[in-house]
Specification:
Helices cover about 50% and strands about 15% of the residues. The chain is built from 13 helices and ten strands.
Length: about 270
């Protein structure tokens, strides 16, 4: 039985990744699950993020997804490895779960000329040091500087990403980051909510700083993955359908989701 590609995020941010996936691979079916009732994941413990993520992955499996993308940096940092190594062999050996951190770090060194890269992420992602650890595997000489931006997701989730308050927090965190890495020439938006802050981030940076959004990188990586794993590609259904689920209220989700996804969506509530 063939099924859709599952895309999971703690909130709305993963819709920016799903948009890139749909643009690059429109022929496949997609099923999005946002755990909006329990967002944000960033400040939560490793154990809690792992448990929440596993519940959502299992739900996407029940919805028929052979392949799930964790379009959430915090979940990728705190839960992906355990799910891949411990849970999948036990509960779903024929299913696959992929994240967003490794595809991004595989490309990092190709973007920077100065050898210094900045990571902007949630507290959970930064504390996990996943970007530092993974980048060192591919580009040992690369210097990776991190800055946790705990207010950025709430600003986006509450529709305040265009406000003057957003400017204050963006400038504050960029100044802290560049104080540690003054030669940073590449910034990674290591949270899928952050692309909505892109105009304001750019306004506080010199033009020579490159800002990397993860959606296109993840889409390119998935395209390559399916080429290398035809056995998984054969399990995916191809009707160009899109399904959206939220653990919170559908009407509120639909109103905000359109901003992230780029077109109107109709979601359904799902209980975990």
């Amino acid at each position: 039985m063939k099924g859709p590609i599952g895309v999971f995020d703690s909130g709305y941010g993963g819709l920016t990744v799903m948009r890139s996936l749909v643009d690059a691979l429109p022929q496949y079916d997609y099923c999005y699950l946002g755990d909006n009732a329990r967002v944000p994941y960033g400040p939560r413990s490793f154990e809690t993020v792992y448990q929440f993520t596993l519940e959502c992955v299992q739900q996407l499996f029940e919805l028929g997804c052979p392949l799930v993308i964790l379009a959430c940096n915090t979940a990728s940092a705190k839960a992906l490895r355990t799910i891949q190594q411990n849970d999948l062999p036990r509960i779903a050996p024929d299913r696959r779960v992929l994240g967003v951190i490794r595809p991004t770090t595989e490309q990092l060194g190709h973007f920077s000329k100065s050898g210094q890269v900045g990571i902007l992420g949630t507290t959970g992602t930064v504390n996990s040091r996943s970007y530092v650890i993974e980048a060192e595997k591919f580009f040992p000489a690369l210097q990776v500087f991190q800055e946790a931006c705990p207010m950025w997701v709430p600003l986006v989730e509450n529709g305040e990403h265009q406000s003057q308050g957003a400017d204050f927090f963006i400038e504050q965190h960029l100044q802290r980051l560049f104080a540690h890495g003054p030669r940073i020439d590449t910034l990674v938006l290591a949270c899928t909510h952050y692309p909505l802050l892109m105009p304001k981030i750019q306004a506080h940076l010199p033009e020579n700083i490159r800002i990397i959004s993860q959606g296109p990188i993840v889409a390119e990586s998935l395209t390559d993955y399916l080429l290398r794993h035809p056995e998984m590609e054969e399990q995916l259904s191809r009707h160009s359908s899109r399904q959206f689920y939220t653990t919170d209220g559908p009407s509120d989700f639909d109103a905000k989701a359109a901003l992230f996804y780029g077109e109107p969506v109709q979601s359904r509530h799902i209980s975990l």
